[in-house]
Amino acid sequence: MKIRITPLAERKLRERLGSLPGTIKLLYDTGHACGCDGINVLLILDKPDIGDLHVEAGGLPFVVNTQHEIFYEEQLKLDADEHTTAFVLTSDSQLYGKNIQIRDLRGLELSEYHSPSSCEILPRSN
């Protein structure tokens, strides 16, 4: 798998990485067994998880889980929006998402991280 990173996306990713070590993970997040469609997200992790595969992405440390690799074509392009925090993931034949967000999870234990699913109904805060 290979991701071509545009200069704008590379600049924004490097800004998010900062001076701390980290790995960027492309994740197809299906929530917590709710059965609805998933969304693409970018995570910044301390290190790759067991089962992650290295993805060629220029000089950036990118991985994808072996089980999620099937959701993506072999050649992808990652761009960014100049005015927002969103990224855009495409291939020659499809748009994977134009509002892909990035979450920095460095320093968190897996048990601390809870990704709200789009299928969950969360209580309102007053």
TrEMBL record:
<protein>
    <recommendedName>
        <fullName>Core domain-containing protein</fullName>
    </recommendedName>
</protein>
<dbReference type="InterPro" id="IPR035903">
    <property type="entry name" value="HesB-like_dom_sf"/>
</dbReference>
<feature type="domain" description="Core">
    <location>
        <begin position="1"/>
        <end position="103"/>
    </location>
</feature>
<dbReference type="InterPro" id="IPR000361">
    <property type="entry name" value="ATAP_core_dom"/>
</dbReference>
<dbReference type="Pfam" id="PF01521">
    <property type="entry name" value="Fe-S_biosyn"/>
</dbReference>
